[in-house]
Amino acid sequence: MIVVRFILLWLPVLVVAQDQVPLVDQVKGWFGKAQSYVQSAVPPAVTNPIDTAASKVAATSVSPVTLDNWRDVLKPSTSAKGTEPQEWMVYVTGANKTCYGLCGRADAAWNESTALLGSTPNAPQLGLLNCEESPVLCNAWAIGPPMIIHAFLPRPLPDQSTPATTVRFIGLNRTAVAASDIWEMASSGKGTYRETDPYEGYFHPFDSFLAHQGLNIYLGTFIYYVAMVPSWAFMIAISFFSRSFMSRRMGPDRPLRQGQSAGQAAPASQ
Prior knowledge:
The chain is α/β, with parallel strands linked by helices. The protein is built from 10 helices and 5 strands. The chain has helices spanning 2-41, 49-61, 70-73, 96-99, 104-118, 135-141, 179-185, 209-213, 216-228, 231-250, and strands at 63-65, 86-93, 125-130, 147-153, 166-171. It has a 5-stranded mixed beta sheet. Helix 6 (135-141) packs across helix 9 (216-228). The longest helix has 40 residues, at 2-41. The radius of gyration is 38 Å and the shape is globular. It starts with a helix and ends in a 20-residue tail after the last helix. 23% of the residues are buried. Residues 13-21 and 37-60 have low confidence and may be disordered.
């Protein structure tokens, strides 16, 4: 009788224990379904189709400008008719080292503006200069991103002489530039490039003394490698130079008189 009572007392517990196994599995299934519902409810990241299309248009209509090809790219087209100078707009961009990661808005505005510029008559030729990939060229021209280089490239005259090239370096606002601002710079837009004076300094890409002598690229290379030297190296070099200069300026100690030891005065004559 004791055994029967023991079995009857523990029978409900055993039944509950057997029912708990499928219950745990069922709860896990509920959590799995809920997780799948949450994941399906969150929409995937969708790229802006306007930005994608603009970047594709920019890639097809913009000529890359590098240290190796800029002389061949930035010149009047031989297929164009007439004797008027050819208008060029070169966008100068960069990345973390040259633009400190702040050229994203300007890049998007440039990509959108290429579609606007391409759809207007008498559109300028477009180029893209990346200072991260061509730092020597950017140093040779003393420019930095984001910027628009607006230039009128003259056509050679019948006597093979070339008139002066009008170049303007127009800086862009990193936080507020829009595609319409870049479009308005072109002659086919509102011609706002006239608000910036033409550049006629030593770093002119075409007509300066350095450019005519081919020294601007050597200067840009020198600036590039000097910029790679850490600042502490300059401080150490200046410290060694100043100490060496001061030691030579002071000179060696004067020799003592014969028979006179250091720190002793000569005996008075009697």
